[in-house]
């Protein structure tokens, strides 16, 4: 209870405050949707939201492709090289974001890539890929490869095997990995902050910059929407990773 | 259903190791053929070559005269029952069994009809709508068999299908498998390391060792007349005794000498020879000087407290019980004879309360007739 309270009390506060009519959240002056209405009219926030979704979609797609390939290689070939590969895939999960962000920033500067949406997408793909690979690796370890042999033995060709065996068995893991990647991408602040060029903000970066300039209540409203979306995605991905009974 | 299958000079190497070494074999139409061998003998590799999962480095596989060596597994008229069942966990039993037909774009009502037949064949009707995780190991194996048979394969491969099941269930499924074969016919290749399964199911057995066949024959032939030392030891328990042929005694018997069993008595005049000479059936042609191994099954040795009654062509030795294990239907003894420990099994003809069984450290007599043992020639006399 205490742990839950500790964790959810601030969120509940934020949630309540976003419906407070008062300009500064000190005291409750009545229920209002005015901050949501204001949010609706802010062009810069729309642009940031659009950027966030665009970046998340592209980097999720890229990281799913790369992550699945990495997981397949690690799972299939148990050589020394693949053990090192596993370590390298695992590393981005434990390296502090600030270090990853900085190293990516130096890389982009050194190869002369100007900071833009592209650099953000590359950066997001880098760390999302690791998560996708690890989720898929877990799924592959549960996957019995004799399923493929059995299906071939019974006359199935590769398209049929993919459609009737691989997708039903590995699809949920794939979707879970993709959702996780998507969530991480829209949530990321530190790395995005470092590698985003001027004018290419995402929602987390936008919120951060708004904290200094605009009404805290608009931020509250934005945060509530943002959090709800993230929350739904996380629940969805958890559902998909749950083992089938 | 059912075809003759021909393997011609199949060889498969993995790296430096030759796993299957120039094997040729013909399976008759409708026969159940057991491939028996220890793990690592190459039997699973051979099975996977037949299924099409592995391409041989040399040799051909023919079904009804048609070369299928290069044919991918999904086009072969061959189906497999996998050791771990390999049922599809996301499909029901019904969908699992129907998989082979539905993949072949069979009309739905036809699939349903055939699946019903198969469900009945393996008596799984009431489990049709369950998923593999909800049924027992024995039931999974039945489903795996039904799933493999629905395509009416020319050849059904069974890869140690009962290995994961307990003894009682294994025995029951063996009988069921025989019934299924009698009902559907077809050629079965049954791969196992269990000699009991191989012998009870197979019309013929091939004993495989280090990538090659040691012996192919009917179960009784392989058990009673092993052609190599390995076969004698691997198929059943046996005592192997190294000996040298010393004399052709008469038209039926050979005299062989061995240093392993100490003094041996038999009905023919033994005063001419020193030490251990025993009589053996002249089933194989040995000349004096040839070396051979006598395979003497534990159940062929008669164990008594008193000397056996006189009989012709009987060999007798004396020994001491060094070890015994009571197993209900029989007692298994280790008897010290000369420098050897001989394994002897004895069935109990009377109820235990009414007699005192032979026990540890007792002096005993062991006897066997000249045709109770089987000779395996090891080397011809060069002189």
Topology:
The complex is a heterodimer of chains A (about 240) and B (about 375).
Chain A: H1 2-17, H2 34-41, H3 43-76, H4 80-94, H5 97-110, H6 117-142, H7 146-153, H8 158-187, H9 190-195, H10 203-213, H11 216-241
Helix pairs in contact in A: 2-11, 3-4, 3-6, 3-8, 4-6, 6-8, 7-8, 8-11, 10-11
Chain B: E1 5-14, E2 17-27, E3 32-36, H1 43-51, E4 58-63, E5 66-67, E6 78-81, H2 93-103, H3 108-121, H4 137-149, E7 155-159, H5 167-184, E8 187-192, H6 195-201, E9 204-209, E10 212-217, H7 219-224, H8 229-234, E11 239-248, E12 253-257, E13 265-266, E14 277-281, E15 291-296, E16 302-304, E17 314-326, E18 330-337, E19 340-347, E20 363-369, E21 374-379
Parallel strand pairs in B: 3-8, 3-9, 6-7, 7-8
Antiparallel strand pairs in B: 1-2, 1-4, 4-5, 9-10, 11-12, 11-15, 12-14, 13-17, 15-21, 16-20, 17-18, 17-20, 18-19
Helix pairs in contact in B: 2-3, 2-4, 3-4
In the CATH classification, which architecture of the largest domain in chain B applies?
3-Layer(aba) Sandwich
Task: Pick out the low-confidence regions of chain A.
Answer: none
* Proportion in helices of chain B: 10-25%
Sheet with the most strands, sense and barrel status of chain A: none
User: Low-confidence segments of chain B, ≥5 residues, pLDDT <50?
Assistant: none
Shape of chain B: globular
CATH superfamily of the largest domain in chain B: P-loop containing nucleotide triphosphate hydrolases
Overall mean pLDDT score of chain B?
A: 89
**Strand arrangement, largest sheet of chain B?**
6-7-8-3-9-10
């Amino acid at each position: 209870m205490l742990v839950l309270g500790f964790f959810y009390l601030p969120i509940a506060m934020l949630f309540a405050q976003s419906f407070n009519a008062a300009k500064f959240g000190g005291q409750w002056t009545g229920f209002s949707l005015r901050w949501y209405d204001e949010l609706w009219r802010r062009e810069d926030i729309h642009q940031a939201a659009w950027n966030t979704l665009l970046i998340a979609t592209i980097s999720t797609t890229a990281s799913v492709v790369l992550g699945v390939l990495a997981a397949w290689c690690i799972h299939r070939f148990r050589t020394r090289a693949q053990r090192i590969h596993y370590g390298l895939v695992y590393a981005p999960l434990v390296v502090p974001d600030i270090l990853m962000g900085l190293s990516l920033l130096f890389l982009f500067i050194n190869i002369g890539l100007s900071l833009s949406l592209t650099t953000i997408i590359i950066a997001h793909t880098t760390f999302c890929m690791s998560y996708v690979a690890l989720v898929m690796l877990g799924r592959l370890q549960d996957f019995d490869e004799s399923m493929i042999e059995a299906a071939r033995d019974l006359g199935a060709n590769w398209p049929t095997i993919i459609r009737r065996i691989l997708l039903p068995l590995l699809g949920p893991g794939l979707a879970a990995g993709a959702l996780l990647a998507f969530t991480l991408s829209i949530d990321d602040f530190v790395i995005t902050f470092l590698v985003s060029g001027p004018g290419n903000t995402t929602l987390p970066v936008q919120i951060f910059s708004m904290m200094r300039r605009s009404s805290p209540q608009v931020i509250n409203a934005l945060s509530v929407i943002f959090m709800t979306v993230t929350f739904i995605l996380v629940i969805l991905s958890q559902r998909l990773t749950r083992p089938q009974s | 259903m059912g075809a003759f299958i021909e393997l011609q000079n199949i060889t498969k190497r993995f790296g430096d190791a030759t796993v299957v070494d120039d094997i040729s074999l013909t399976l008759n139409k409708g026969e159940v053929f057991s491939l028996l061998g220890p793990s690592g003998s190459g039997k699973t590799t051979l099975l996977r070559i037949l299924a099409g999962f592995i391409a041989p480095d040399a040799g051909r596989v023919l079904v009804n005269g048609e070369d299928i060596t290069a044919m991918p597994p999904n086009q072969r008229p061959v189906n497999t029952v996998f050791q771990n069942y390999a049922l599809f966990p996301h499909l029901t039993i019904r969908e699992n069994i129907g998989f082979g037909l539905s993949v072949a774009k069979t009309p739905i009502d036809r699939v349903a009809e055939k699946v019903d037949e198969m469900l009945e064949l393996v008596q799984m009707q009431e489990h049709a709508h369950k998923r593999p995780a909800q049924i027992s190991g024995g039931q999974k194996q039945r489903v795996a068999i039904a799933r493999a048979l629905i395509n009416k394969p020319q050849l059904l491969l069974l890869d140690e299908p009962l290995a994961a099941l307990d003894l009682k269930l294994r025995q029951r499924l063996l009988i069921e498998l025989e019934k299924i074969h009698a009902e559907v016919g077809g050629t079965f290749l049954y791969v196992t390391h269990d000699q009991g399964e191989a012998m009870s199911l197979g019309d013929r057995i091939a004993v495989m060792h280090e990538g090659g066949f040691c012996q192919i024959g009917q179960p009784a032939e392989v058990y009673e007349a092993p052609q190599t030392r390995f076969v004698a030891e691997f198929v059943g328990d046996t005592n192997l005794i190294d000996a040298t042929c010393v004399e052709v005694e008469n038209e039926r018997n050979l005299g062989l000498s061995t240093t392993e069993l100490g003094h041996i008595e038999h009905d023919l005049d033994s005063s001419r020879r020193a030490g251990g000479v025993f009589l053996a059936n002249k089933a194989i042609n040995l000349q004096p000087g040839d070396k051979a191994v006598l395979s003497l099954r534990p159940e062929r040795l008669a164990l008594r407290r008193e000397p056996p009654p006189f009989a012709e062509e009987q060999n007798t030795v004396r020994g001491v019980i060094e070890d015994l294990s009571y197993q209900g239907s029989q007692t298994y003894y280790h008897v010290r004879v000369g420098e050897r420990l001989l394994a002897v099994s004895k069935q109990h003809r009377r109820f235990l309360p009414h007699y005192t069984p032979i026990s540890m450290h007792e002096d005993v007599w062991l006897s066997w007739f000249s045709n109770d043992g089987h000779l395996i020639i090891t080397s011809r006399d060069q002189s």
